[in-house]
Design a protein that fits this description.
It contains four helices and no strands. It is an all-alpha fold. This is RNA polymerase sigma factor.
């Protein structure tokens, strides 16, 4: 049986979920989009936990992962908006 060197990573996510959602809501300016990023964060943490990646400071790690995913989501939305604007101008 595989034991994770990051015990409590998922438990830490659950423990800090409200703070994480508040953090993401400030970043995303929308609670639903923030909840989507929180869900992506959880899925990423499940994958990390299954790979037995050592994590020393779970809360900091979780917020870093979530922050990076929020940035990715905002960039993706900007690209989509820019593409939409370009297609409207062209046509």
């Amino acid at each position: 049986m595989l034991t994770s060197p990051a015990p409590g990573l998922l438990a830490s996510f659950q423990e800090h979920y409200d703070d994480l959602l508040q953090f993401l809501t400030r970043r995303m300016s929308d609670r639903q989009r923030a909840a989507d990023v929180a869900q992506e964060t959880y899925l990423k943490l499940v994958n990390i936990d299954q790979q037995a990646v050592p994590v020393l400071h779970a809360r900091s790690f979780i917020f870093r992962v979530a922050g990076n995913l929020a940035i990715d989501a905002l960039r993706r939305e900007q690209r989509i908006a820019a593409s939409h604007d370009d297609s409207e101008r062209a046509g």
